[in-house]
Amino acid sequence: MGIALVTGASAGLGLEFAWQLATAKHDLVLVARDEQRLQRLAAQLEAGAGIRAEVLVADLADRAQVERVADRLRDDERPVGLLVNNAGLGLNQHFVGGDLAREEAALDLMVRTPLVLSHAAAEAMVARGRGAILNVASIAALLASGTYSAHKAWVRTFTEGLAVELKGTGVTATALCPGFVHTEFHERGRIDVSAYPQVAWLNAEDVVAKALADVRRGVVISTPSLRYRTVAAAARLAPRSAIRAVGRYRKAVEGTPRPVDEPAG
């Protein structure tokens, strides 16, 4: 896979992707908003894994800054062989009565940015005849949990369509669809998850290892763990009225959201 570019690399799954890819001796391009965390991570990866880590500071909810990342993906001098579209955020607000500007920023980050970066990466990779794109979706893509579900449903469907288009080119597209993962995501989003049982949670290390193994195999939909593959199968077969009932239950469990604007990474 050569060089890997990881968005949202300073925290959560992005941080785990960075470490596992570095351990596998891939040079990295680390993308996130927090320059201090990125520089510290780059130094740790270079010292600990003996690889080269570039830092690319960008707010991926800003179209102009996204274009700088797209330009890096188009660079043929140090070509990127794997794009990991990981950056995301938890809004933790109801749509009705919520801040529309924050909804638009989330849409930009989790829908427009993967679109733009996948386009840049796919064109460069197809021209070289090799490469891989990994888009982080969620099991929420099959549920009815507000606009987050809608964003992740788009990522999942988009990635499937991209995989069809890329067939035979030497380039693959994979959508990672995990459930709850032990990372900073919920803490940074100030999302109360205390009502969810321990069995619902996955380890970031296992999720990332499964995702990268599936990328190597050319798997289109990567769902870590048997329990979430079972959930996914049930969600696909269940009537949508049942899925909406689950959404209403989650709303009751989680209570009134608190405003937050903190992207993962």
TrEMBL record:
Pfam families: adh_short
Top-level division of the source organism's lineage: Bacteria
GO molecular function terms noted in the UniProt entry: oxidoreductase activity
SUPFAM superfamilies per the UniProt record, alphabetical: NAD(P)-binding Rossmann-fold domains
Keywords assigned: Oxidoreductase
Similarity-based family: Belongs to the short-chain dehydrogenases/reductases (SDR) family.
UniProt xrefs under PANTHER family: NADP-DEPENDENT 3-HYDROXY ACID DEHYDROGENASE YDFG, VERY-LONG-CHAIN 3-OXOOACYL-COA REDUCTASE
Protein name: Short-chain dehydrogenase
